[in-house]
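Example record used in the benchmark description.
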Amino acid sequence: MPLPIVPTLAALAVVLTATGLHAQPPAAPAAPAPPSCRADLDSLAQRIAADYAGVQLEIVGPRRLAYDRALDSLRASADRRAPDGCFPVLNALTASFADPHLFVFQSTRIDSAEARRRREAVPVLALDEAAVRRDLARRAARLDPIEGIWYDGPLRLAVVPEPGAPRGRYAAVVLVSDSTSWPVGAVRARFTRRPDGAYDADVSTRDYGRRTLVGRIHKRLMLRLSPGIWGKAYPVAPTDRGLLDSTDVHRATFVLRGGTAIVSIPSHDPTYRGALDTLLATHATALQGAERLIVDLRGNEGGSSWMTNGLLPYLRSARRRPTPFDSGDAVMLASPDQQAYARRAFGPDTSRFVRTLLERMRAHPGELVPLRDPADPRDDASPDTLVVGPPRVGVLIDRGTVSAAEVLVLDALRSERATVFGEPTAGALDYQSVNVVPIAAAERRWYLGYPTITARASLPAGGMRGRGIAPDVRVDWARVADPIGWVDAALRR
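Model output (structure tokens):
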């Protein structure tokens, strides 16, 4: 099956460019008035029905009636909204499917006049990092998890209670800027704490575009803002040190604690495959000689599953255990968007695989067709022969472990030497491999991201969406002071 891709920021840039779209296209002549919110919602619903197999497989019977009623309610809401304020309505529609691979991507393109207006309106707070650290240390026992010093590449921010705002509101203030247009002290983002522990976020880009996002903190160190991750620089518990790269939060890290090797992987973004391979090669002697290996996948944003191929010999065993998700053949919903995706993702029509796939799609429009040519012999995976490293392996997961990271989790569950600890994953492998398309020909503010490949035509039976992949050992990480130490002790036993 082709490798799953989730909407990491780098992956979206590649997808948008490959489709002839651009998240930040060059300035253009004045465009006609944007479509109404109601028109955008109807276009989005039509595009989802045409391209997303989950509608055909799961929106049936009583759920079809409930879906239609919910869509009518959203239409009434859309009628009351201006075009630029339509995102919450569009997002509510995609979120109703509870599929991490189905989403509305927000373009941040604005003209120079609007960028200038926003720049002039940004509040500036006089903050000094040393003073912020002193205040955080003074209030250490009662800090909200989001309070602290965070970084995103060269950008460094202090997240503090927003002055004059109600409790639970926070401002991200620039301490070190990543752009000359953002001065130190400028408020780059705002967060509002939600009852479920997540945060509603209003985040500005370098060029003063804005995205409405949901932020979630994983392993006390990572603020996931899909797309994007911030890393926490301060305060950090001693037991959590070394689990994030201090420069680029996406990079994997290696730590050796006694006889235990720890590999922390925040992202499967294929951009970082070379860095992971170098890390594994640099520490190969330590990895192969360690008594135990811990692989930390908490909060992993996904990307491409082949990104961690270099780690597989340290994870797999010669014999395999079965998982509940091992059966079934992948299918694709036949649509014009899907045909274009197949040509772009799988190669030219001269490839027999692509040629026969396109033939099946053209012959069965609107239907699910096998991804693999039924006439081809099945290529069953051969047993694993390269097995190196410690005899005991622990893998840490949580509800933020998504997509390509879940492929690695399944590899761990199949291994006789690995134990998976934590909470169920996000459950994003029923529908995989994201494509991004405009919701309508005249619309350049919102795009639909949808999964192109369906794991099996029998879904939702035997699927993981809404449930995730269950660990071998369930652990509520919020109740564990030292997750790495806890797993290490469990492996020793």
